[in-house]
Amino acid sequence: ASLDGRYEILRVIGQGGFGITYEAVHIHNGNHVAVKEYFCRDLCGRETTQIEKTGCNVYVLDDTLQQQFRSDLDRFLKEARTLHDFASDQSIVTVLDYFEANATAYIVMEYLDGITLRELIPKDGCWTMENIVRCFGPVMESMERVHDAGVIHRDISPDNLMFMPDGTLKLLDFGAARKFSNMQTTHSVI
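The structure assignment produced for this chain is given below.
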């Protein structure tokens, strides 16, 4: 299936309660990308008919859920903008594009061929302090830049860190991130 006339969807690579992530290829330049689609299973469904060969439209399950769907969709697009602001940071996944289509929204990111920290830990067992500092040091420096920009991540976890073939870690998801204006405001932890 083609998405927005620019991305050919190859396969699903991940699925959660709030979205589906696909491996795709950019039709014009051949680059592999990851495309994250906002698709909250509790709020929406998908039409089964093909819409102009660009994918199937998403619909809200019930009119009473329309406001919640739009609010969550706006939050999803805010995540895209937040990630895009840190595109030059080596420890954060690069957002290449984001847009609305098929009555939902999409974030196009660099395709990472790695393994999540959650998958890696059982295979590797205990790490030495040297390995921990080498891998997490750059991520901590990135988080300092993120905090300096007024953003709190709120969801750094083994599922959101990908171990790359070169031994570095990349932070994948800013879905729970929140801007803050002063440090006296309290925020929930997710």
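Interim note for the steering committee: The longest strand covers residues 7-15. Confidence is low (pLDDT under 50) at residues 50-54, 176-184.
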